[in-house]
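Hi U.,

Before I forget, here's the chain from the pilot set. I'm dumping it here mostly so it's searchable later in email.
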Amino acid sequence: MSADEVEARVDDDLGAYRTGPAALDRRLVGLSARELGARYRALLARVELKAALRRRDAATSQARAELAEDRRALLRGGNR
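Structure:
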C-alpha cells in the first residue's frame, strides 16, 4: 500500500468516526465484537503508519536540505 493509499484510507476511516454515530452505525452494523476489534486495530495500525510516513518524509526533507547545503559549501571551496 502506497503512502497516498494509507493516508486516504486513514482519512476515510477517521472521517466516518467524525461524522457521528449514524454513519458509524451504517458502517459497523452487524459486525461481531471480534470484527469490530480487528477494524479498530487495523485503523490504529494505519494511523501509526501514516505518522511514520510523515516522520520519514520530514527526515528525508531535512537530509536533502543538508546535502544541498554541503554541495553549496563544496562549490564555494569551504566547509559548512
